[in-house]
Automatic annotation (TrEMBL):
Superkingdom of the source species: Bacteria
Cited InterPro entries: Prot-tyrosine_phosphatase-like, Tyr_Pase_AS
Organism annotation: Hansschlegelia zhihuaiae
Protein name per its UniProtKB record: Protein tyrosine phosphatase
Gene3D superfamilies the UniProt entry points to: Protein tyrosine phosphatase superfamily
Amino acid sequence: MIAVCPITRLRECAERFGARRLLSLVTEDTEIVRPERIAAADHLTLYFHDISEPLCGYVPPCERHVAEALDFAAADDRAILVHCYAGVSRSTAAAYAIACAREPERDEFELARTLRSLSPTATPNRLIVRLADAALGRRGRMVAAVEAIGRGRDAFEGAPFALVPMVSPARELVAV
């Protein structure tokens, strides 16, 4: 399971989704209170701003950030909770990338449409998606799929959601 939430709902969502691992995608000055159910060794924090183009004074997501996030998610298949400040851009991009990595045979467009149906506010960070696409060898399909679903509805923060892989003939991701 890959769950997504804003920072304001970390504890609640760790319990709700049974998360045992936590991926935090925040700026360096952000205070994170790790939920008690998640051990310190199962928490990775990556520091960068939610930007898709270079901007003076800001740290953009880079190849190293994406590689660390994907490696962290691949190291253990327990439920992972991904968050950023609002649960709209960095975290939805990372969740999409992790889902693509965990299910390499899945169609990128189908996964993006599933993401949109679960989160009408999701606006995956384009740079994270582009870097993940390259890292996973998806040849631009992840980028095209996220462009196809477009920008999500405006919101101060997104509602929590989870992508759950199901073992079935269709191997669909469903909401929890």
